Amino acid sequence: MRRRAIAVVVGVAILVAAPAPAIAHGIGGREDLPVPLGIFVAGAGLAIVISFIVVSANWREPRLQTGPRDRFVDAPLIRLFYRMLAVIGLAGFALAVGGGLIDGAASRNNIAPVLVWVYFWLVVPFASVLLGDLWRWMSPWRMLTRWVNHDRPERPELLDDVGYWPAVLAFVAFTWLELVSPDSSLPRTLAIAAIVYTLYKVAITYWAGPDTGLEIGGAFANYNRLLGALAPISAEEHTTRVGVGAATTIETRAFRIRRGGWLRSLPTLPTRPGLAPFVVAMIGTVTYDGMSSTGWWGDVTGSAGRETWFGTAALVGTIVVLGAAYYAASSAATRIAGSELSPSDIARSFAHTLVPIAFAYAFAHYFTLIVYEGQQLVRMASDPFGLGWDLFGTADWAIVFASSTLWIWYIQLVAIVAGHIGGVVLAHDRALAVFGERDAARSQYAMLVLMVGLTSLGLLILAG
To answer: pTM of the predicted model, to two decimals?
Structure first.
């Protein structure tokens, strides 16, 4: 087994050490790097390989499968913070819809695109990686659908029969709106999309029940829940019942913080149908976005690359290709380990190991968008509907750009490598639980190659 491991490591090392072409960089040019791009790609790939060797040699039994450590800290004042999140969620929803209906075309001066594409789509999920799932507390659809369909019966059997497939379709549809639709920046388009999604959430919770419908159909709820599972902490609202006299009971509701540790919530995620496709879609949509923004993509696709039908096919095709690669790695794992589990079972069981990679891809790709375009909120807060107001005296605010972009590249590089190392750790820990110590390391050879390939692809896309 050790000889085979060494052979795989050497093969992967040769693969990542191959010279990479110097491609124009989307954030400042390759000439600002102290060493050629190929060195960065090779070093990142080798970091993944070395982490695999170290983990395989020293991690001999599962340590993460039991979930968070469940250290609770009472935090009475934190209740106000989470109640404020609910208010912010409702206010943001109202501004996005209202802004689109009042002024549907003046996207430069309208707050809706910045709220949706920067804060709702990026800042909140990325903050959840540090603070736990924030969207759970601020989602306007969670409050609305529970109010409308509070008397509908729950259908928990759909969790195992349908799983997360409705959420997968809703997630891909939303990313299509962002990445392919020519009208994605128009406030009116975003307002209509918000209304359509609201109707969809009302319908699916009417069919499946409030709690079940939110879980199987929530594109944003599941996205934030997966990223929030990376966080070392999470918030919980618990109810305490105190008996007063013979027939009186007083219920008190309070918040407390769970200190569970990094990555520990991911292995305990329910492995329901659609989980693996959802995580693959998280990676695939960002991969397509990165590729479609590179110079070489335009050279290869030509005028077709600007057509909606081509973008739709390319987006779906990217997700399918990455999904096929992941399924192939899962199939190789079960064959190498001699397991009776099917490749689908393995793909579902190991789906959580891709979540750190999905976050790393998204964070690295959209980091500059948050840093620079996120500043637009300062200006647009004074004139949220593009009507010429200056409520806070910030209507003339200009974006402050950094004098050098080299630090951005290093942040992106660290994010991608760290995300893949997290994936290696999670995959090895799950392999120990599924295949046992004897077969755990060798069962992950194909997954190691996949992760190195994704690391290289991610850096090359950032460089393109």
So the answer is: 0.88
